[in-house]
Design brief:
The protein has a single domain, classed as 2-Layer Sandwich (Transcription Regulator spoIIAA), CATH 3.30.750. The chain is globular and about 60 Å long. By secondary structure, the chain is an alpha+beta fold. Helix 3 runs parallel beside helix 4.
Amino acid sequence: MRSLGSSGVWELFIPGVGPGDYYRFMITSKTGDLIEKSDPYGTFFEKRPGNSSMVSDPFSYRWGDHDWIEGRRSKNPFQEPMSIYELHAPSWTKKDTDFRSWEDLSRWLIPYVKDQGFTHIELMPVMEHPFDDSWGYQVTGFLAPTSRMGTPVDFCGFVDACHNAGIGVILDWPPAHFPADAWALARFDGTCLYEHEDPRQATTPTGTPSSSTTAGTKYGTSCSPALSSGWTPIMPTGSGWMPLRPCCTSTTLEKRASGFPTAAAEGRIPMRWSSSVSSTTMSGPISPVL
């Protein structure tokens, strides 16, 4: 791989690579050790117990939620009522020791939510994670929907189906910590690249590495992987993008109803991908609204 100057980005072109192919990074540390890692910016991963990154093209999905996106522009979410149904998607689709698909969840969940009068679905973290019982709160792939239920395109299809049924989707996205699996984010290049360098702040009470967002440092210095290098991941929503907003899931409805401003409204987080993000502090989950 070759470095693109001072950008911090490395690149490599391999002909013949396509969706579904597996890959990993072999990193030479400053001390000369070879470290094998999955891609911290990967959008698709091998189904557990495997952990290789996989090539995917989620932006190839052709969205059909134009009416939803246009209708949302004319609404004021701070003044209109919201009723949110929160769930753990893999638990809804568990089948013995395996899981069903996003398409199955669409068929079962959307009619139920509509019948009960909910306006939004809130998903506990669907980002890639190695341990089922963590409910997704121990993330190793912050930009990848878990492969337990299908591909990134399958996940897009679920969001699309919700929008076409008039249901909004909220995602819990917990960047404050991550598991210490050797193949993932912890000491990624042999140093504290994604966790805090100060050992007093490097781990949570449960012993997992703590990203420096919990220490109040600036984005783009030493944050969680998806925020590293100053890039803020904003989830695709068909023909538009929605910003991240800091919130605690248990108080989402209260804050929205009382006019709690989003991070984007306050000018802290841009509406689209940006390499210029100002300082802010996160202590709980972040919820992109789709």
